[in-house]
Structure formats: structure tokens, C-alpha cells
Amino acid sequence: MIMQKQNQDTLDIMRLLGHVFLLHGRPDQALVMLRALCVLVPEDKRAMRSLALAAIRSGQAGEASRVLDRLRDSGDPSPVLHLLDGQALAATGRQTEAERAFSQFSAARAAEAFTPASF
To answer: Which of 17, 70, 103, 106 suits 88 as a labelling partner, its CA being 20 to 30 A distant?
Structure first.
């Protein structure tokens, strides 16, 4: 029981460090932390989305695209995937595709805002 709690605490600290590194302009350090976290907890979709963002900000758009593909394959419904995809595409100079992804993000967010659950 104690070991389980320590392991969970360690994972929470790794998530926090990845977030802090991203917030403070240290995407390379975030990338390392989030890669490790995703190896330890491969089903953590939030960590994978953060990993994709860290990869984009570190100039690793190809890695970001692979992570986003894995998220889509796992059925992640988050509209943020479109936003991250647009950023990765823009980073590789694929502006038309990036614009389409950004439009999909906007449409998905608008649809989310007007679902009955939001009232």
C-alpha cells in the first residue's frame, strides 16, 4: 500500500514537472520528463497530449505527430488533438493542413460549448 502511494506520488510529481517545464519555456526538459511518464503510464492521455505539446515546442514535430496518431488510434475524443495537430503541421510548413486542423478545433470547441451537459 505504501509503495503504491509512493509510486502514484512519483507519477504526480513527473506530471507537475512536465507542466512546469512547459510553462517556463523549458520544452526539452518537459519532453524528457513526459516521455518517461508516458512509458510508465502509457494509458495517460493527458500526459500524451502534454508530450505532443512539448515535442512541438522542442522542434520535434514528427514525434508530436506520432504521439497524436497514437492518441487518435486509442479513441481520444479531445478537441485539443486538432489544435496540437495544427501546431505540428504549421511547424513543418504545411499551412493549408494546419488551417484545416485549427478550423476543426474551433468547430469541436464550439460544439462542446453547446452540448446539453454544459447547461
So the answer is: 17
Query: Which tens digit of pLDDT belongs to each residue from 5-41?
Result: 778 999 999 999 999 999 999 999 999 999 999 999 9
- Amino acid sitting at position 118: S
Q: How many helices (H) and strands (E) does the chain have?
A: 6, 0
Residues near 19 by Cβ (< 8 Å), separated by ≥ 6? 30, 50
Distance CA 105, CA 119 (A): 21
The CATH number assigned to the domain holding 87 equals: 1.25.40.10
pLDDT tens for each residue of 35-56: 999 999 999 999 999 999 999 9
pTM, full prediction: 0.87
